[in-house]
Structure formats: structure tokens, C-alpha cells
UniProtKB/TrEMBL annotation:
<feature type="domain" description="Glycosyltransferase subfamily 4-like N-terminal">
    <location>
        <begin position="6"/>
        <end position="170"/>
    </location>
</feature>
<dbReference type="InterPro" id="IPR001296">
    <property type="entry name" value="Glyco_trans_1"/>
</dbReference>
<dbReference type="GO" id="GO:0046524">
    <property type="term" value="F:sucrose-phosphate synthase activity"/>
</dbReference>
<dbReference type="Pfam" id="PF13579">
    <property type="entry name" value="Glyco_trans_4_4"/>
</dbReference>
<dbReference type="Pfam" id="PF05116">
    <property type="entry name" value="S6PP"/>
</dbReference>
<dbReference type="InterPro" id="IPR023214">
    <property type="entry name" value="HAD_sf"/>
</dbReference>
<dbReference type="InterPro" id="IPR036412">
    <property type="entry name" value="HAD-like_sf"/>
</dbReference>
<keyword id="KW-0808">Transferase</keyword>
<dbReference type="InterPro" id="IPR006380">
    <property type="entry name" value="SPP-like_dom"/>
</dbReference>
<keyword id="KW-0378">Hydrolase</keyword>
<feature type="domain" description="Sucrose phosphatase-like">
    <location>
        <begin position="418"/>
        <end position="647"/>
    </location>
</feature>
<dbReference type="GO" id="GO:0016791">
    <property type="term" value="F:phosphatase activity"/>
</dbReference>
<protein>
    <recommendedName>
        <fullName>sucrose-phosphate synthase</fullName>
        <ecNumber>2.4.1.14</ecNumber>
    </recommendedName>
</protein>
<dbReference type="InterPro" id="IPR028098">
    <property type="entry name" value="Glyco_trans_4-like_N"/>
</dbReference>
<feature type="domain" description="Glycosyl transferase family 1">
    <location>
        <begin position="209"/>
        <end position="379"/>
    </location>
</feature>
<dbReference type="InterPro" id="IPR044161">
    <property type="entry name" value="SPS"/>
</dbReference>
<comment type="similarity">
    <text>Belongs to the glycosyltransferase 1 family.</text>
</comment>
């Protein structure tokens, strides 16, 4: 390990080994390093990692270790070395390349030009936010941005880990790239069971009382990890230093100096803060560690302590999942991937990373929470269930398949469609796995003249992810973000925004945002704010306040749903408008459209078409709805009931106990 060893290394190894377990021959291509400070293994041209998984190292004229920021100058030589490897050894020429980081994407793009090999891209960490915070003007950073822009434009598909990356960061480079983005939860490389007792013995030389609980952080020593703010939080929060020790594992070092300039600066800053606050004996900053040490520290944090990630922005946060899987409570930055992780786990505290007071307060709350053990146990179970490399590999294989075949994923309907079936996803198609499987069977066997669409409040990447998680079929087209966007198939796994529909959605977005900021209604997270939709938290009472604040503006719609969400959009948008647009373009008459939904953001769509289906679990949002068909069965079975009633599914598709049609 070096100071550049981070979560991305664990990601590559976990992904590669999982793909190999599925029967693929996987080569991890990286740079050969011949450096006296590192093991000779890094200079070996070939190394076996696991059955069918091999590391192949590219040899160039520069053999020593290079910090990642110094790799740019080596890219031409690495590109030539990769092309020579693929040219001289056609037997190992891959079907597809997965490029990790934009530097690797430069090599992948060259391989595609030379040999026609398609490629996927995972950014892991994009520089646009960093560039914005610095105000630009850094030539090296500008060149990195250009490489990232080329990677996003050139990749056949983009595999992202977090919603922030998929829905905010990537589209900031290219708005249409979202049609090639797939969000897939990564897994975690198991470190084995750690020992808290062993961790205490290891830390004893640093601490006056190693029996105290531990506040733990594990991060590379770079400025954006914001470790200094954690020291400040520990020092400033009353009583914290008496209740717990602070343990910061900040990469590997031989001493206070001798590393990369940024590492040396961060380490010096940490030591200075510990010294100024007289924290020696309460803070441990170990110089060296290995994987077993980290497992032990996670076990220690699980015994009455807390794991904290205070990064200014965290692209994903694999260490949070590792800590959760060990049973440690979490405090994490509210910027980036941790938002998704903590929401998925249903536990943890998100904080403003620029507020040491907020960080310290969240840690203190965890330390004093009587329900802490049960909450940590529940989050631990979810962390093991949701983040799994084998599941990731299966999804990645599906994403790569149309690129390798170089054929578009065909729309299921053939010729001119006569019928259109448009369904909401959450609570309509999802909710019961057996019912979802029956709906998938219907979709696979439906008549060729029946077009299937989903109409969801989710973004495109999230709609794709949820359908995949529930083994539901990918539709002929997507109506997303509460009917403000339409995405159509356009190539091998690609979706393209319907620009014709978008052109109808003119609205004063900036003025709407300013008016709602003035009434201090809570906005949803940044990635929920779409080009033609602004989203907030609130019930129907709050929605009334929103309508009042916007009363002076014309051409707007305010939609309240699920008792806690409020969406504001152009009046010309909405699920009804989007489905009607799709039907007109496809030549499907309104009486041949069937729509299904369960909540308030489906109300306009359900009211617009005579053939509307509400499953039995429809929310109180729709209690006043009259018309359509109300299923006796919930979720997808209720939809199938309605389809049978309208002659688009056989009555026998439902098992006898739910056949109420």
C-alpha cells in the first residue's frame, strides 16, 4: 500500500474477482513499478490474483513509483505499451474494457480506435467540483477536466456508484450522457472478523487509556478528506475527549516528511492541530498499518465508538460500508455518495463537513444514544445485503452485453404499436417480488403491438437501477422525473432524451427557485433538482404554501405526493403530458392507452386516460380519484388484474388466490 491506495483499489479488485467467479477471463491492467520502497511483486509483468483473474503490468521507461498526479506525463508511454500488448498477444485481447478513472479511459479509447474494443467507464472521482472551489486557473486541473470530458463522451456506458455521481456530476460534463449512466452498488472486499482487543493493544503506545471507545477515521492524507476538521470537532466538543479516543488512519508514511507534497502538508496540519489543542495521549495517528489492522479498528469502533467520514466531498465512501458491516455507527459528510449509503442503511448521521461543531455534535449524539446497538445491528444487516460484488458483476455483465454485441437493445413492440401501457414503478410494479415476476412474464409475452413504458418520479439512472433490482423488464421508453423527461432507445444500451418534448417545457426555473428559497421550504438533495423539476420536502400544508408563493407566476404545476414530497414543474409537464406526447408520436389513440399508478404524482396521468389502473395499495393521495379500475390485489398483481380487465393480459396470468379480475 502507498499513500494513493484508496477505495478505488478495493473496487477494482472486488469487481475483477467477482467477474472471474462468473466465468469471465479478467485481466487487471496497470503500471509496472520497480521501486526499492515497494515489494518486487509490483514489477512482475504477470501476477495471478485468483482463478481466471490476472494482473498484467505495462512496462515503460519510467519504472519508479509515481504519485497519481504525476501519471499524466506517462500516459503516452502507457498507451503505447497497452497497444503493443494487445497487438502482440491477440489471445488476451478482451471483448470489453472497463476503464477506471479518466487516465485509464485515454488508454481504453486508444484500444477502441486500434482494435474496435468497446469500453465502460467509472470515474470514481471527478474534478469539476474541485475546480469550481478553486476558481479555475490550474493548468493541470484543466487538463484533467478535459480527459474526464473525453471519457464521459466516449464511453459506451458509464457505471457509477452514487446518485450524486450519476445524476449531478456526470451530466455537468454532458447532459445527454445520463442516457448511458447506470448506477450499481459496489461490493466490499471482506477483511475478515476484526478483534477490538487486538486493536487496543496496537493503539496502547499512542493513548493514555486505550480502553475508551474510539472515534475512527480511515482516509488518504489529502485535503479533500478534511481530517483536520475532525480533529477540531474532537477538540472543541465539550466532553468528547473524556468519553472517547480519536484514531485517524491517514495512509502510510515513513515519517513526517518524504511523501508527496500534499500528504506531507496534511500530516503536518494534523500534528499541528493535535499539538495546539494538547490532545497527545488522546489521539492516535499510526504511521503504518495493514488490512488486518483496519479490520481490528472497525471492530473497536463497533464497541461503543463511531466511524466518521468528514470529507468535503466523498464520491462514494466504501469505508463507510466496511465500517457498517462491522457494526460501527456512522457520521458522514452530506456531500456526495454517503447520502445514498446512509439512506440505504437507514442509519447514520449526515453533517456539514465545514462545521466542526456539527461533526462533534453528531459524534456525541451517537456516543450517548441508548438505541445505538440495535440501530447499528440493523444497519450492519442491510450493509451486507445491499453491497455485494457478485450482484455488481451480474449487473455489469448486462450493461456490457449490448456493447459487446454492438447491437441496440430492441424495443419490444414491433411495427406500429396499437396499445401503450405506461406504469409507475415504486409501489405499482414493486412491492412484491412474486407479483413483479408475474408482471415480467407478461411483459416478455405481450403482443408485439403493445408498447411498454414506465412513468416514474425517479431519474433515469434510478429507474434503471430499481427495475434491475426487482428483475423487472427494461421498457421500450422511460418517462422520468415526474413526467418532465422522456428517454428513448437510440443505440447499444443507450437512451437519448426526447428533445421535442423538452422544447415544450419553457419555464422560469431561476425565479421559481428564488421564490421558494424566500419561504424557507426544505429542498431535496442537489441531484433531485432537474432541468424541468424542482423538488422539496413537505406535506399538503407545505404544498399550499408553495402554491401561494408561486401564485404570481403562470404556467406552473405543484404536485404533492407520498405525504412528504413536493415537486414544482412547468404546467406543460407531468406524467399525463409526457404519456400523451409518447402516444401521439406512436400513433396510439388515447382509448388504447393503459396507465397504472399508486400515488399523487400519478394523479394527472390516471385522470387523463379512461383505462387507468390503481392497485389495491394505492396511497391516500388518490382517495378522491373516481374512475378507472381499482385492483383487489396490491402492487404488480393489481396492475395485471387491470390489464386482464382491459383485454391486454389473460385472466389466467394471476394465481387463483389473487385472481379478482
Amino acid at each position: 500500500m502507498t499513500e494513493d491506495t484508496g477505495g478505488h483499489i478495493a473496487y477494482v479488485l472486488g469487481a475483477a474477482c467477482a467477474q472471474a467467479r462468473r466465468g469471465a477471463e479478467v485481466s487487471i491492467v496497470t503500471r509496472a513499478i520497480d521501486d526499492p520502497s515497494l515489494s518486487p511483486a509490483y514489477a512482475a509483468p504477470v501476477e495471478t490474483v485468483a482463478p481466471r483473474c490476472t494482473i498484467r503490468r505495462l512496462v515503460t521507461g519510467t519504472r519508479g513509483y509515481l504519485c497519481k498526479d504525476a501519471l499524466e506525463a506517462e500516459l503516452p508511454a502507457l498507451t503505447e505499451a497497452l497497444l503493443a500488448l494487445l497487438r502482440d498477444a491477440p489471445a488476451i485481447r478482451p471483448d470489453v474494457i472497463h476503464a477506471h478513472f479518466a487516465d485509464a479511459a485515454e488508454l481504453a479509447a486508444a484500444a477502441e480506435r486500434a482494435f474496435g474494443i468497446p469500453w465502460l467507464y467509472s470515474s470514481h472521482s471527478l474534478a469539476r467540483d474541485k475546480c469550481a472551489s478553486l476558481g479555475g486557473g490550474d493548468p493541470a486541473l484543466e487538463r484533467r477536466l478535459a480527459r474526464e470530458r473525453r471519457a464521459i463522451a466516449g464511453a459506451g456506458a458509464i457505471v457509477a456508484s452514487s446518485r450524486d455521481e450519476a445524476e449531478r456530476q456526470v451530466p455537468a460534463y454532458d447532459a445527454e450522457a445520463e442516457g448511458r449512466v447506470h448506477r450499481v452498488n459496489p461490493g466490499i472486499l471482506g477483511r475478515g472478523e476484526g478483534s477490538a482487543a487486538r486493536a487496543r493493544r496496537w493503539l496502547a503506545p499512542f493513548l493514555r487509556d486505550a480502553t475508551l471507545p474510539a472515534i475512527l477515521a480511515v482516509a488518504r492524507p489529502i485535503r479533500k478528506k478534511n481530517l483536520g476538521a475532525l480533529v477540531e470537532a474532537y477538540a472543541r466538543t465539550e466532553g468528547l475527549r473524556d468519553r472517547a479516543n480519536l484514531v485517524i488512519v491517514a495512509g502510510l508514511r515513513n515519517g513526517l516528511t518524504g511523501g508527496c507534497p500534499e500528504q506531507d502538508a496534511v500530516i503536518a496540519d494534523l500534528f499541528d492541530r493535535v499539538d495546539r489543542h494538547d490532545l497527545w495521549g488522546r489521539v492516535a495517528l499510526p504511521r503504518r498499518h495493514d488490512g488486518a489492522d483496519i479490520a481490528d479498528l472497525y471492530a473497536l469502533a463497533a464497541e461503543g465508538g463511531v466511524f466518521c467520514n468528514p470529507a468535503l466531498h466523498e464520491p462514494f465512501g466504501l469505508t463507510l460500508i466496511e465500517a457498517a458491516q462491522a457494526g460501527a455507527p456512522l457520521v458522514a459528510t452530506r456531500n456526495g455518495g454517503p447520502v445514498d449509503i446512509l439512506r440505504s442503511l437507514g442509519a447514520g448521521k449526515l453533517v456539514d463537513p465545514e462545521s466542526p461543531e456539527a461533526i462533534g455534535r453528531a459524534i456525541a449524539e451517537w456516543l450517548g444514544d441508548d438505541l445505538r446497538p440495535s440501530r447499528a445491528r440493523a444497519a450492519r444487516a442491510k450493509a451486507h445485503a445491499l453491497f455485494d460484488w457478485d450482484r455488481w458483476a451480474e449487473r455489469a455483465e448486462r450493461i456490457a452485453a449490448p456493447l459487446v454485441a454492438r447491437t441496440p437493445v430492441p424495443a419490444r413492440s414491433g411495427g406500429t404499436p396499437r396499445h401503450l401501457v405506461a406504469c409507475d414503478i415504486d409501489g405499482t410494479l414493486t412491492g412484491d417480488h412474486a407479483a413483479a415476476a408475474r408482471f415480467a412474464d407478461w411483459a416478455a409475452c405481450r403482443a408485439d403491438d403493445t408498447m411498454f413504458a414506465v412513468a416514474t418520479g425517479r431519474s433515469l439512472p434510478e429507474a434503471r437501477r430499481v427495475l434491475a433490482d426487482w428483475d423487472l423488464p427494461q421498457p421500450d421508453l422511460f418517462v422520468t422525473s415526474c413526467g418532465t423527461e422522456i428517454w428513448r432507445r437510440s443505440g447499444a444500451g443507450r437512451l437519448t432524451r426526447d428533445t421535442g418534448f423538452a422544447a415544450t417545457l419553457d419555464w422560469p426555473r431561476a425565479q421559481v427557485a428564488a421564490a421558494l428559497e424566500a419561504i424557507e421550504i426544505e429542498p431535496q438533495t442537489a441531484y433531485e433538482q432537474r432541468p424541468w423539476k424542482l423538488s422539496y420536502y413537505g406535506d399538503e400544508t407545505e404544498a399550499a404554501r408553495v402554491r401561494a408563493a408561486l401564485a404570481g407566476m403562470r404556467g406552473l404545476r405543484v404536485v404533492a405526493s407520498h405525504g412528504r414530497f413536493i415537486d414544482v414543474m412547468p404546467a406543460a409537464a407531468g406524467k399525463a403530458a409526457a404519456v400523451s406526447w409518447v402516444a401521439r408520436r406512436a400513433g396510439v389513440a388515447p382509448e388504447h392507452c393503459v396507465v397504472a399508478g399508486d400515488s399523487g404524482n400519478d394523479a394527472d396521468m390516471l385522470a387523463a386516460f379512461p383505462r387507468a389502473i390503481l392497485p389495491a395499495n394505492a396511497l391516500p393521495d388518490l382517495d378522491g380519484f373516481r374512475g378507472g379500475y381499482r385492483g383487489a390485489a396490491p402492487f404488480a398483481d393489481g396492475v395485471l388484474e387491470g390489464l386482464a380487465r382491459f383485454g391486454l393480459a389473460p385472466a389466467t396470468i394471476l394465481p387463483r388466490e389473487v385472481d379478482h379480475a
